[in-house]
Write a structure and sequence with these properties.
single chain; six-stranded parallel β-sheet; alpha/beta; 208 residues
């Protein structure tokens, strides 16, 4: 299997855990699908996974705001990702594993992905949100920030033109919600990305 991966141009010694993070509507899924396409275009197989909880594009599909989509396997909080990916490798070589909605990973699952990189020698690209609407890290994102070999911020902008680093949640009438469950699936109708200054103006200064 190792030789087959090398034959496809994948160097196991270079396997790393990557975390691409941003706020909402920054194009993370688009970047994931483009990166996976680049591998496939060169004859290399990829394995795509997305969170079962987010089925906006359909169950077991990764979808982007610009209309791109692709079938993916799903993970749930109880999924052992090391075992799942190892089983996929038994079916044939994989040049890279892609994880969408990585903020929904558990800390244990992030460690499992680290083992995939270290022990199975397969690179993992995880894409997800960094913080929730309250400005708090998602557990999966916190673990990825601690364990990833490579981190990249996917940037988008606030309505003022500054870099957006935060997100607010809106109610049905467009009012800003300051409380609620950390996880609520939604898109442009639910979340708005803002710079820190405008997030503070909308949510209230947490230090006051």
């Amino acid at each position: 299997m190792l030789a087959m991966r090398r034959g496809l141009g994948h160097d196991p010694a270079m396997a790393k855990l990557h975390f691409h993070y941003s706020t909402m509507n920054a194009g993370k899924s688009t970047l994931l699908l483009q990166a996976a396409h680049n591998y496939n275009e060169r004859g290399m197989q990829t394995y795509l996974l997305t969170a079962a909880i987010d089925d906006r594009a359909g169950e077991g599909r990764i979808g982007s705001r610009i209309g791109l989509s692709r079938t993916a396997d799903i993970f749930r909080p109880a999924t052992d990702l090391f075992t799942k990916i190892a089983a996929r490798l038994e079916q044939g070589p994989v040049a890279c594993v892609f994880i969408d909605e990585a903020q929904f990973l558990t800390r244990e699952q992030v460690w499992q992905l680290a083992r995939v990189v270290d022990d199975l020698k397969v690179p993992v690209m995880a894409y997800g949100l960094r913080v929730d609407f309250r400005g708090e890290l998602f557990p999966g994102s916190a673990a990825l920030l601690a364990l990833a070999d490579v981190m990249r911020e996917v940037r988008t902008i606030c309505h003022c033109g500054r870099k957006a680093t935060m997100v607010v949640r809106q109610g049905e009438n467009g009012e800003i919600l300051t409380d609620g469950a950390q996880v609520q699936i939604g898109g442009n109708e639910t979340y708005v990305s803002l710079c820190r200054r405008h997030w503070r103006a909308a949510m209230g200064d947490p230090t006051e």
